[in-house]
Amino acid sequence: MIDLLFYFLPFWLYLLFWLTRLYWERVRLDNLHERPVLITGCDYGFAYDAAIELAKLQVPVFAACYTQDGMRKIQAEAEKIHGARLMALPLDVTDDESVERMGQIVDKECKRYGGLWAVINSAGVALNLFIDEFLTCEDYYKTMDTNLYGLKRVVNRVAKLIKQKKGRVVNVTSILARCPVAGIGPYVISKHAAGAYTDVIRKELAMFGVKVITIEPGFFRTNMSDLDRIAKENWGVWDRTKSEIKDEYGYDFVKTAIDNQALMMKMVKSETTTRVVHAYVKSVTSVYARRRYKVGFDTWFLWHPMSLLPTNLQDIIFYYMSLAIGGPPPASLLPHCSHCKLKENTDQENII
Hints:
By secondary structure, the protein is α/β, with parallel strands linked by helices. The protein is 57% helix and 9% strand. The protein contains 14 helices and 7 strands. Strands 3-2-1-4-5-6-7 form a 7-stranded parallel sheet, with helices on both faces.
């Protein structure tokens, strides 16, 4: 019996660790009404829901929105909550002047609190999720400008306020930054860079007593993962692409790739965002907040385990996954494709 208990000792220790951490995370900070939080990207999705949840806890919230409609919507919802202190702010994280205007408002409002307790950088985009050869550097930059540089602009602008409270910086990246998949290059690269940036400033800001936290969600149902929008953008990329690249890949291959992309997202994405919202709230209200939150069923049982595998094994698994989904290879790899026939006819005409 003793031997059996000793054999399972790692399991019991791991279980004890999980139970202890769950208990620690339930311990909330005191005086939440004196700990203001800035959240970007509050027009919809994770940030919108988290801002409302924090307002219910009487946390002063600066809800930064990209659109006027987003500001009106979240302000109206907050007014339904008794005692809520939520201020909607306009913010375009890709615009230095917009970030500065937001910063001036937050500076003024935070004087009564002695600084800013936390910022949650949730603003993000997922544009042109397509094969790399069809994309331009501008496609990558547009995504990076929001998901990486926008995040940095906000952090740099409010860092002084957060140092005053010895508060927290919370950056939302993606579990796909750990396990990149084909066909969504700009998004994955921007989130990978944002994760690296977060790791760097976590070490740099620690000397000021500032805790830096990473949240890595998997696939969830949000406006960013709207399949109709993604498919429309992808066909727009196809239409603008040079004919030689179109001929190499072929219409059938691209159509199947777009359909399979939608199929994969439907298979793995969660229909509820509750777990992500809880991670947002815990990251700024828990006494013992984690340094990293990995959120989602697909995160724990697919992407995170895959990220721990050797690169060769990862590639083999992805290869057989693509075979299982099905679809034709690129047109140029087919022995009797229309591209080849066109080339053969051209060669014959040249000979004649």
